[in-house]
Amino acid sequence: MPDKKSNKPEKKVSEASYEEQLARLEEIVRKMEQGELDLEKSIALYEEGIELLQQCEEKLKLAEKKVEKLLKTDKGTKKTPIEPEN
């Protein structure tokens, strides 16, 4: 289905990046919080949101496993917390 704004085909949800999925999820939440959608549209957006949430969680789990693998040492897992940059 083409994107109405750009006439480009939309990416399948699973092909979208984590950031794209999160942005779409935030957009869905905003629309639903406005309370101006009919029931069918609300349910469709809710279903899409659940799918996006599950896929975002899966991508985060994979990223966490990659980080754990990178932190492994010869003597086990290095338990060094990652500090946020200021």
Topology diagram in text:
Blueprint (H helix, E strand, L loop, with lengths): L17 H17 L4 H33 E2 L2 E2 L9
Antiparallel strand pairs: 1-2
Helix pairs in contact: 1-2
Looking at the chains present, what oligomeric state does this protein adopt? Answer: single chain
Distinct helical segment count: 2
Low-confidence sequence ranges: 1-10
Using only C-alpha atoms, the radius of gyration works out to: 18 Å
Characterise the protein shown here:
There is one protein chain. With 86 residues, the chain is mainly alpha-helical. It has one domain: Helix Hairpins, CATH 1.10.287. 58% of the residues lie in helices and 5% in strands. The protein has a two-stranded antiparallel ribbon. A hairpin with a 2-residue loop joins strand 1 (72-73) and strand 2 (76-77). Residues 1-10 have low confidence and may be disordered.
Write a concise keyword list for the protein shown above.
elongated; 5% strand; disordered N terminus; Helix Hairpins; 86 residues
Gist of the model:
The chain has 86 residues and is mostly helical. 58% of the residues lie in helices and 5% in strands. The chain has a single domain (13-77), classed as Helix Hairpins (Orthogonal Bundle).
